[in-house]
Here is the input.
Amino acid sequence: MGARYNGAVMADPNFESRVRASFGRQRVMTTIGAELVSVAAGEVVIALPFRDDLTQQHGYLHAAIVTAIVDSACGYAASTLMPAEAAVLTVEYKVNFLGPAEGRRFVAHGKVLKPGRTLIVTTGEVVAETDAGTKSIATMLATMMTVTGRGIAG
Amino acid sequence: MGARYNGAVMADPNFESRVRASFGRQRVMTTIGAELVSVAAGEVVIALPFRDDLTQQHGYLHAAIVTAIVDSACGYAASTLMPAEAAVLTVEYKVNFLGPAEGRRFVAHGKVLKPGRTLIVTTGEVVAETDAGTKSIATMLATMMTVTGRGIAG
Amino acid sequence: MGARYNGAVMADPNFESRVRASFGRQRVMTTIGAELVSVAAGEVVIALPFRDDLTQQHGYLHAAIVTAIVDSACGYAASTLMPAEAAVLTVEYKVNFLGPAEGRRFVAHGKVLKPGRTLIVTTGEVVAETDAGTKSIATMLATMMTVTGRGIAG
Amino acid sequence: MGARYNGAVMADPNFESRVRASFGRQRVMTTIGAELVSVAAGEVVIALPFRDDLTQQHGYLHAAIVTAIVDSACGYAASTLMPAEAAVLTVEYKVNFLGPAEGRRFVAHGKVLKPGRTLIVTTGEVVAETDAGTKSIATMLATMMTVTGRGIAG
Here is the structure.
């Protein structure tokens, strides 16, 4: 039978080690200093400490760096539900920016909203950790695709 | 009177030097190796040579790096139409990825679709330059905002 | 002082009657048979019984009718937080369709995610009521705008 | 061999009659008074005369009715490139509203941007015809899906 997530069969019980290995191959994550915080069925968390060299013109984290961690969190959240031999592809995403990306550390939560055979709809949120507490700075709605048989995986 | 763009008065004749200076302060652009190719009224082009350390797990440029250059291109396209003392803010964007981000160089074109007093709607495209020619790999639809009086500009 | 919603001052204590009156003037809602179920601070619910003459080619409710009720729900959710003399405008929205729009009745929940002075970010969900239970068929992420001083309200 | 559109083989030479028949089964189009203006490979145009009973609270056409015609135009634009036995599904769309939907008649142009085997990315525009000329009032970026083997077509 296998485990299920929101009605979908979990195709790969070893999803965590597979996602962790794939994250390790996302060289841009190392470049920007992002770390994989947690991997659960349908939910992945990625964190990024603030860095001066990733900012836009006002000294905040650039919107696209905020997008980078939440895109990867959403993509890997989708990937946890895929077969071991499948690759995950970002079809499209939309992000609303809710406030300036200022803080010491940014945490992106990606979550599967609707698992489908071919397409997986995910939502993501990025929270900034500041001296005054945490605040939500971005929300993502993204469509991910399961790709098989193209000689790529992960 | 002043120049006009698509019916909107051009508020700042010196937009090009202002945009170039602001781009120089977007430290993430230096970090990833992006360069400002051209700045015209309502249209900005940014290019990025391929780099191994900006890739996702299959060796293509990460979707968020593709997003980074087209977000900045769209934001600065909007900025060209703004008053000198205004700052441009990305309200939200949507990106569709049209093919794998493989190539020697990636060129993002940002363009104003609809200039408004407060909100400016922009469209962007990213083209990959490969040995076999160029191909479109991403399309963006983004909402930018003119912000004044918050002590920030550019 | 006034009531607050998620950190924002509630500008109009009589928001419910104002929203109900405005909904009554949305003639398309009457045309398609939608009804305003509930109006709370930052949250509005609209329902629509299935009707054969609102379908697409496979007999399901047309995606844009699903969009109609959740757009109005999100717009009015934003409107509950606005001053009495302001008008709400849909800047843009994105909708993901999660399954076929089949059912006896469709219920759209609109909710404010981030209230701003000018822009209000909202999320919406549409649930289909079927003989077998309820299921989520669409999710919306939308940007609404507060417009004042243009001689329109509601 | 067959005809090609933007690199994709045209799978069904009789796409026009197929799309016209399917449009005839979209009962909501009859309900709102929309008409199919033209069907070409990868491009479909749908028009809608203004009607009082499709308005929002300020007397303009409701955003979702604007969305209805451009969603159908984009969906059928994608459908022209699909096999005869396939059905087209709207995966998701984003719409930016560029101005009030006022006018005598509204014309939606849907166009294929990127044809893929499973997913087809489309763009749409809605133009309002007024006494003072035409103006663009909405732009759409949408993902359509080719569905086969589920017992539905068109």
Observations:
- Chain C touches chain B through eight residues (CB under 8 Å).
- Residues 63-79 of chain C form the longest helix (17 residues).
- The radius of gyration of chain C is 15 Å.
